[in-house]
Write a structure and sequence with these properties.
This protein folds into two domains: 2-112, 3-Layer(aba) Sandwich (Rossmann fold); 115-191, no CATH class. Helix content is 38%, strand content 16%. It is built from seven helices and six strands. Strands 3-2-1-4 form a four-stranded parallel beta sheet, with helices on both faces. The longest helix has 17 residues, at 147-163. The mean pLDDT is 92.
C-alpha cells in the first residue's frame, strides 16, 4: 500500500509529520510518499532516507488560518492538493493529512469528487468499544445536515464497517438526546 502524507499539514510540520511517517513506514511496512517542501522534509529525515519513503516536492501549503477553497484555488501546488492528485492518478492508495480539515475536504471534493448518490462527504472515525469497534460519522465535516444526509452517512458507515472492519451485519444508530418521539431537533426526529 502506498500512502501519500501531507508533510506540511499539522502542528509542528514537517518535523512531527516526517517523524510519524518514518515510524509508520518501519512498523507497518507500507510505502510512504511525503508531499511538501523537499528541503525541509530532508532536514528531518536525516542522512539515511528509508527505502520505503519517497518525497514529492511542492512549494505551497494551506495554512490553518486560510479559507480552504480560496486557498486551493490560489495554491494549485499546495501539498494537500498534490497529495490528493497522487490518489486520483493511482500513484497513492490513500492520503493522510493532519492539516486543515476544510482543505482536506475541499481538495477531496474538487479533485476526487463524490460517490454517486452522495450529496455530502462525511468524516468518519473508528472508536474502540467493549464489544469491538464502532464507526462514527460525521465527526466534523458538516454543521447543518438534512435527514437524507444522515441516511447517506449511515449507509457509508455501514459499508465501511462491513468491508473494512469485517463486521457482519453492522447495526446502525442515530445519536440523539433521547428515544422519545419528541426528543431532539426536527432533523434528528425525521431521520
Amino acid at each position: 500500500m502506498k500512502i501519500a502524507v501531507d508533510a506540511m499539514g499539522g502542528d509542528y510540520a514537517p518535523g512531527e509529520i516526517v517523524k510519524g511517517a518514518v515510524e509508520a513506514a518501519a512498523e507497518l511496512g507500507v510505502e510512504i510518499i511525503l508531499v511538501g517542501n523537499s528541503i525541509l522534509i530532508r532536514e528531518h529525515l536525516g542522512d539515511k532516507e528509508p527505502e520505503n519513503i519517497t518525497i514529492v516536492h511542492c512549494n505551497e501549503y494551506v495554512g490553518m488560518d486560510e479559507q480552504p477553497a480560496a486557498a486551493l484555488r490560489k495554491k494549485k501546488d499546495a501539498s494537500i492538493a498534490v497529495a490528493t492528485r497522487l490518489v486520483k492518478e493511482g500513484k497513492a492508495d490513500a492520503l493522510i493529512s493532519a492539516g486543515s480539515t476544510g482543505a482536506q475536504m475541499a481538495s477531496s471534493l474538487i479533485i476526487l469528487g463524490r460517490l454517486p448518490n452522495v450529496q455530502r462527504p462525511a468524516i468518519a472515525t473508528v472508536l474502540p468499544c467493549l464489544k469491538g469497534n464502532v464507526v462514527l460519522l460525521d465527526v466534523g465535516a458538516n454543521t447543518n445536515c438534512k435527514p437524507e444526509n444522515l441516511l447517506e452517512f449511515a449507509i457509508m458507515g455501514s459499508i465501511y464497517a462491513e468491508r473494512i472492519l469485517n463486521i457482519d451485519k453492522p447495526q446502525v444508530g442515530l445519536l440523539n438526546i433521547g428515544t422519545e418521539p419528541t426528543k431532539g431537533d426536527p432533523v434528528y426526529r425525521e431521520a
